[in-house]
Specification:
The structure is a homotetramer.
Chain A (H helix, E strand, L loop, with lengths): L3 E5 L14 H22 L4 H4 L1 E10 L9 E10 L4 E9 L2 E14 L4 E2 L4 H8 L4
Antiparallel strand pairs in A: 1-3, 2-5, 3-4, 4-5, 5-6
Chain lengths: 133, 133, 133, 133
């Protein structure tokens, strides 16, 4: 019942030729937060299924403020919905403590061997429920 | 009154450690198509304002099929809406002639000198209207 | 006894905030040429061993000219040396027909299952010898 | 008379489809260390000339060990040579405290307005001399 919070280090190369962090590179920063929860934290809790395969089905992103490197970036991530074979993340990205971006993603657990989506397991559901609001 | 169509060359490095084109790298492919129209084609028509500054305000993307390199990728891009100070693109990305992704973006012309959004000019509006359906 | 030549499509995002193609992105362009020969052309000749695993042991790169997007880029690639368990590529990258970069790479075939380097096979040697000067 | 040391955060996307940190992404990590010294630390010392323009003339890199995400990465960077219009960096990159990469770069201060190389200033020379061994 809490947000997952993580600092993400910007890189100089995240900026494009307009001199701002590129919109696509922000998506990479969201991926870092998502992977931190789904791969690293989940694995520490004994859950390796996401790390073995999970697919993004949808992203929605609103870019609110331009960001220039260097800046301190923090991503807050939580689970909005847990279905039978998919779940949804919501994100807020703070740059120097100002809200710079809001996003949502739909995730689908994926069985790499059969190359097919699979159901969310009960243990995965319990793990994800920790990060609902 | 037509779609803008462009082939985009995949790179081996567009794949991530799951062995598929990464979801964020698809966004880079959409950027290539968008920049091709807004920067290169527009400049050939005498319009350099977008190239001087334009910002993404929002993306929505649905990922429909996984893609593995090598594959032939074509992006189709058209203008859905033209407002006073923003406009919207829609995209379809075909990989080996199958629809792999649908997306929409909201774009905002941006004045780099003043660091502020600016209005769509009449010439830009006429240019964009060519690409409405 | 010929160079392998390939056009590589620049992307707008290859530029960094100095407004030039970033030095590291040039390395990605060289990778595209290398992978085109070692993975795609070799596989057409029945050789899939490189695609299953090959590691870069060393790069040397001289950056001769700045490049701005858009530009036509062609990479020429040839094999300089074939050893027992490694081989070397040389590259020239032309941007709008001017020599912009020279590079060399040392490559090591790699057995992913055992996580160890392996020897160049006779069939691989014959394949590589086609691209010596 | 000391090495500049900095931790660099790996990203999941630094891995390629072989499941290791890609050789080109290592170059981005070296860039982060270099930019940290030349742009951020130098600017804190009142020197903004590098941040306004500096070009890579040459890289040499030896890749010694494969790296898998997650890992703790530290880059050590020092100045090997200071000439009239160029200088050289040497690097060692440690992953989980093991030496994974050695590299050298030749850097050229660059005047963006005139699009030409420029000389190293006395203040820049004094700054760089701090980081010689």
């Amino acid at each position: 019942m809490a947000r997952y919070q993580t600092d993400v280090a910007l890189r100089w190369s995240d900026m494009d030729s307009f001199g701002h962090v590129n919109n696509n590179q922000f998506m990479v920063l969201l991926e870092e937060a998502r992977v931190g929860m789904m791969f690293t934290v989940a694995a520490e809790a004994g859950l390796t299924g996401f790390r073995e395969g999970v697919v993004v089905a949808r992203h929605e992103v609103d870019f609110l403020l331009p960001v220039v490197v260097p800046a301190e970036v923090r991503v807050e991530l939580w689970v909005e919905r847990i279905g039978n074979s998919s779940f949804s993340f919501a994100y807020e990205l703070m740059a120097n403590d100002k809200l710079a971006l809001r996003a949502k993603s739909v995730m689908v657990p994926y069985d790499v061997a059969s190359q097919r989506p699979r159901r969310v397991t009960p243990a995965e559901r319990a793990f994800l429920e920790q990060w609902t609001e």
